[in-house]
Amino acid sequence: ASLYRINGWGAPYFSINGSGNLSVRPHGLETLLFEEIDLMKVVKKAVDSRSNGGLGLQLPLIVRLPDVLKHRIDSLQSAFDSAIRSQSYDSHYQGVYPVKCNQDRSIVEDIVAFGRSHRFGLEAGSKPELLLAMSALCKGSPESYLICNGYKDEEYISLALMARKMGLDTVIVLEQEEEVDLVIEISKKLSVRPVIGIRAKLRTKHSGHFGSTSGEKGKFGLTTLEILGVVRKLRGVAMLDCLQLLHFHIGSQIPSVSLLGDGVGEAAQIYCELVRLGAGMRVIDIGGGLGVDYDGSKSSASDMSIGYTLEEYAATVVQAVRYVCDQKFVKHPVICSESGRALVSHHSVLVFEATAAREVATPGLDLSYLTLGLSDDARTEYGNLMGAAMKGEYELCLVHAEQLKQRCVEEFKLGSFALEQLAAVDMLCDLLSHASQQADSVRTYHVNLSVFSSIPDFWAIEQLFPIMPIHRLDQRPSINAILSDLTCDSDGKVTKFIGGATSLPLHESRPGEPYYLGMFLGGAYQEALGGLHNLLGSASVVRVVGSDGGGQAFAVTGAVPGQSCADVLRAMRHEPDSMFEALKCRAEDCFMGESVARTLAWSFNAMPYLRHGATTAAGDEHEWGGYD
Ligand code: PLP
């Protein structure tokens, strides 16, 4: 466990069980019901063929754990409830989930259902997000907030006002001063009294990667001048009572409670000033930013970790608001937060297969080919190379090998070198590079996944996620590895791991036996940001809950295959149906026989990822769809 720091980032949900497999405690430790789900059993159920009682899904696979999601919501609510109780705060906490973090239907619906008793609501930042939040909240608590952030046009504002008419507690948060004119005009047209919020641009600045949206020069929110402008306009049309919420967001992954306290304190001062100016204030919305400890270090020094607990976060917020309001004799507002990352990161695990890169083969290596045609310069380089190799100086060896290769390529271009001679040089360089990797003991493992589709933040902002094997954890790993993905892109590699490591301890692969890795804490942002580079689409998904009665049983309550080749082609506006027809006709013209159409149909319906290991026989898990 210490090799992978699982007790740091994984507690209280992930641990290693007696079989050496990774297991999940979906309710954390705070439950009378002892439930532990063995992740390997879930993977087996997912990938086994239907004829073997499995689901016939292909990897990569996202295992969703809705009970973890529920535990996160309950924990956040209870941290605020107890801070409010212990500090005799005179109002309550009521959170919203920012759907941008992961708009997946099952997650949004789960959050609304699990959060109903806490009046938990949703936050939207665009028109489609607003549409999904409106329809999801029809099943929420009538008191849940629907917070409308983001840049707005007439359509967005009309939709938000319609939501209010439908009885949803909708707040239009002004992101720019001009939006207030549209809100005034459209609300009059639709005869709806709007509830308005203002996003303030705070002076408090978060200095980490995620803090670029904060501070005076931040992209979002209204300056003090603009806030006063809005107040003036609303007062002018007798709508100042509609201004009821103050919002700010100083960035994701807030590193410390001191920064948090600073930001909340500044916002609370603005809140009290708005009360003094006559606005109908009732809510302070502290945005997102509650962080996740990705590397388990519990430190405020990097973007990968945070230096506080949920309880400390809530206590800091409540104390900062209370202190300012008490000083100004202002009634305590409802505290709202828009935590996304901290709610959904833990509930999903991405499982994928890894295989050790092929050993370099040496058949037919005949160095006599090489030495035959060498020029004098190249012959000297060859002598240096062999000398360094004999002494085991692999780095020097590689330098000489590259120089030798360059010279040989030049000779080949001049026509004085045969293809066999060039192949002998290539092979020599491969062997030396392999020998030097072994001396460094860092090996490459190929992973059946696309970094761009499944871990986009690693590529884009060097965000690290815990990655580790999900089985064989009772055996000491003997290899240090880096991971290389399926895409033909040099960025498609994982070469940095939590804790500053440049390699990951892995086990030797065993022939014919799949080796599974899991990526953890990736439930926020990764699915929504993942792209279609190389047309490698989204992963398969299973939704897994513990079985009634506890113990080690589990039930799969939902399964969705990943995007097929046809799906990803369609996403780029190709037309798989007509492509299939055209290829089928061509095959018929070439007298290729009927089985070609079946193979083509199967290819369109299959996932784009490699099919090996424990996955099922071709065709087992796919309907023929529209291609027959
Ligand atoms: N609210 C707003 C306005 C945001 O911009 C964001 C994220 O960027 C969030 C909430 C969610 O932040 P987090 O995931 O850090 O909780």
Describe the structure.
Belongs to the Orn/Lys/Arg decarboxylase class-II family. SpeA subfamily. The modification N6-(pyridoxal phosphate)lysine is found at residue 100. One of its GO terms (molecular function) is arginine decarboxylase activity. There is one protein chain. With 628 residues, the chain is an alpha/beta fold. Among the domains are: 65-347, TIM Barrel (Alpha-Beta Barrel); 565-627, no CATH class. The chain contains 21 helices and 21 strands. The strands form 3 sheets. Strands 4, 13, 14, 15, 16, 17, 18, 19, 20 and 21 form a 10-stranded mixed sheet that branches. Helix 9 links the parallel strand 10 (243-247) and strand 11 (283-285). Helix 20 runs antiparallel to helix 21. The longest helix is centred in the last third of the chain and has 22 residues, at 419-440. The radius of gyration is 29 Å and the shape is elongated. Pyridoxal-5'-phosphate binds next to helix 11.
Beta-strand share of residues: 5-15%
**Based on helices, strands and strand pairing, what is the structural class?**
alpha/beta
Rg, nearest Å? 29 Å
Q: What is the CATH superfamily classification of one domain?
A: Alanine racemase
**What's the N-to-C terminus distance?**
50 Å
Major sheet characteristics: 10 strands, mixed
| Coarse morphology | elongated
**Helix share of residues?**
25-40%
Mean pLDDT: 90
- Quickly name the level 1 CATH class of one domain: Alpha Beta
Ligand kinds: pyridoxal-5'-phosphate
Uncertain stretches: 613-625
Tell me the CATH topology of one domain. Answer: TIM Barrel
Number of strands: 21
Number of helices: 21
Architecture (CATH level 2) name of one domain: Alpha-Beta Barrel
